[in-house]
TrEMBL record:
Signal peptide: none annotated. This is Nucleoside-diphosphate kinase. One of its GO terms (biological process) is regulation of DNA-templated transcription elongation. Keywords: Kinase, Transferase. Residues 83-150 form the Transcription elongation factor GreA/GreB C-terminal domain. Residues 1-18 have a biased composition (Basic and acidic residues). It comes from Sphingobium limneticum. One of its GO terms (molecular function) is DNA binding.
Length: 156
């Protein structure tokens, strides 16, 4: 029988398990984001892994290492000024004749369905430093986004 058709075990064909990827760039957080990260670490540390199956325990430890790293590298940003779009601001903008509102937050705090986008997202980068009434380019379109309102977010 050809070696190509022989299979020693399932283990040799399993995908290796890697650490959770850390987003590139600075780990900026809002006060809310820092609190949520601390709570996440505390909750993960409180879990007793002794009774877990081996793979579940390894996965839990990977997740805990990720969140400990994120907590250790967190950079709490000062509250922004509402004159221009910046990290930690709530921005109302008009795109394709539709008005939307988002809050610019850190990578781990981002939740697009809840209107929270990462400061490193393409949309946030396009709007950064723009002022009310200003139009900015986005997705290859000139003046695609109009900034309607900017407000400071102080949730903590």
């Amino acid at each position: 029988m050809s070696v190509a058709f022989r299979r020693e075990s399932d283990d040799e064909h399993m995908e290796p398990k890697f650490e959770l990827p850390i987003p590139p760039g600075p780990n900026w957080v809002t006060a809310r984001g820092l609190r949520l990260t601390r709570e996440k670490v505390e909750a993960l540390e409180a879990v007793d892994t002794a009774d877990m199956e081996e793979e579940a325990g390894k996965k839990h430890k990977r997740v805990l290492r990720y969140w400990r790293t994120r907590l250790a590298t967190a950079e709490l940003r000062p509250v922004a000024e509402p004159q221009a779009v910046a990290f930690g601001t709530r921005v109302t903008y008009r795109l394709n004749r539709q008005e939307k509102t988002v809050v610019l937050v850190g990578d781990d705090e981002a939740d697009p369905h809840a209107g929270r986008i990462s400061f490193s997202s393409p949309l946030a980068r396009a709007m950064m430093d723009a002022e009310v009434g200003e139009k900015v380019d986005f997705a290859g379109k000139v003046e695609a986004i109009e900034i309607v309102a900017i407000a400071v977010v102080d949730e903590d």
